[in-house]
Amino acid sequence: MDPLGGKDIEANPTGREEMQLPVLTQPGLGETTTTVTTISQTGGDWSTGLFEVCGDTSTCLMGAFVPCCLDLSLAHQYGECMCLPLLPGSTFAMRVGIRERFKIRGSVCEDWTTVYCCYPLALCQMIREMKKRLKTQIYTISTTLESS
């Protein structure tokens, strides 16, 4: 093994030239941990209706009194920049994105009508959907590698 380049050096059968082979594996001693995350629910309809606001009191109150803060929270849960709700049409885009991400039945026309006619209710429904669908099950698998 070449001490500087980290490559194995092998003589050519003719004995005149040397070939350098890349290191393909690293030593496997120690413990490795793998985390597997699964999302349990996809597809179908929205998990709650547009007017089913009583189940989540905090979301309901935020949607009624400070929907702009709820929109910021939604952008954060969706994985976007917190400034996204400042852009025109962003809530509509997030609703379409949520519907596409979780394969929820509907259309762009329904999304537009819901967001622009029932803005606070649409925000509450989207937050409830994100909370419900992003509940994940996390399994941690640990393996110990030993040399033989």
TrEMBL record:
Pfam families: PLAC8 (PF04749). Residues 1-19 have a biased composition (Basic and acidic residues). Residues 1-21 are annotated as: Disordered. Transmembrane segments: none annotated. InterPro entries: PLAC_motif_containing. PANTHER family: DUF614 FAMILY PROTEIN-RELATED. NCBIfam families: A_thal_Cys_rich (TIGR01571). Belongs to the cornifelin family. This is PLAC8 like 1. The lineage of its organism: Eukaryota, Metazoa, Chordata, Craniata, Vertebrata. The gene is plac8l1.
